[in-house]
Amino acid sequence: MQVKPYTALAAIYSHLMRSIDYSGWADYIFEISSEIKNENLTVLELAGGEGTLSKILNNRFDRMFICDLSPEMLRQIGNTAFPRVCCDMSFLPFKRKFDFVFSTFDSVNYLLTKERFVSMIKSVSDCLCDDGIFTFDASLEKNSLRYQRYLNRKGTFGNIKYLQKSRYNEKTHIHLNQFEFTFPDGTSVMEIHKQKIYSFEDYFRFIDGTDFYVQKCLVAFTQKDADTNTERAQFILKKRYAYI
């Protein structure tokens, strides 16, 4: 398979995600940040990709930073003013402190082991202010069971054909999304996205041994308390010893 320009694939991914209400999602993230008493927040988005949410939120915060593991995705941000850093979310390189750190679109599910997840939590703790907030959403098993069949799809975008195959393994709790893109000259590119679908209780166990506690756990995009029947949960974390 021959690799084609990343911009073409980025355009297709954007096409596949066109139904997402990014503006509403940004409003929800901003609402969570409003619990912080400080004004003029310095904010970091983890695994921010092409910066779709950060671009919307940029004018709402004093200073916005974004990081992602993929340099190609960060290049798609363009000339937007906020800094971007290519790094692994489990090993953040920042020496400065942030008031608010967030991750969206079940990016934490790409951390395939407990050790990787805990490393991410500890890394965030090192660069988060004592009275700051860290929030992330996680896709749970009911979400995979409900939507996996809907993500088996194919189509054409411009002159490029795409095929997506989605499957969830209930024994390993791994959700695979396989994308194949075929170009007019017959060459193709394949990408496999692998996510670990942890249980609702797992997240609490993982967080329990860190500097954080779960201040709230909500059904994503709502103010309702999440539980084991939730499809996508929004975790809002604060530091245990912030006021000692």
Structure description:
This protein is of the alpha/beta class. The protein folds into 2 domains: 6-139 and 199-239, Rossmann fold (3-Layer(aba) Sandwich); 142-196, N-terminal domain of TfIIb. Helix content is 26%, strand content 33%. The protein has helices spanning 6-16, 22-33, 52-57, 71-75, 114-126, 141-147, 200-208, and strands at 42-46, 63-68, 84-86, 98-103, 128-139, 153-157, 160-169, 174-182, 188-196, 212-219, 232-239. The strands form 2 sheets. A 7-stranded mixed β-sheet has the order 3-2-1-4-5-11-10, sandwiched between helices. The longest helix has 13 residues, at 114-126.
List keywords for this structure.
single chain, 244 residues, alpha/beta, Rossmann fold, N-terminal domain of TfIIb, 2 domains, seven-stranded mixed β-sheet, four-stranded antiparallel β-sheet, 7 helices, 11 strands, globular, disordered N terminus
Question: What sort of overall outline do the alpha carbons produce when their principal axes are compared?
Answer: globular
Give the strand line-up of the largest sheet: 3-2-1-4-5-11-10
Beta-strand residue percentage: 25-35%
Distance between the termini: 57 Å
CATH topology of the largest domain, what is it called?
Answer: Rossmann fold
Q: What's the number of helices?
A: 7
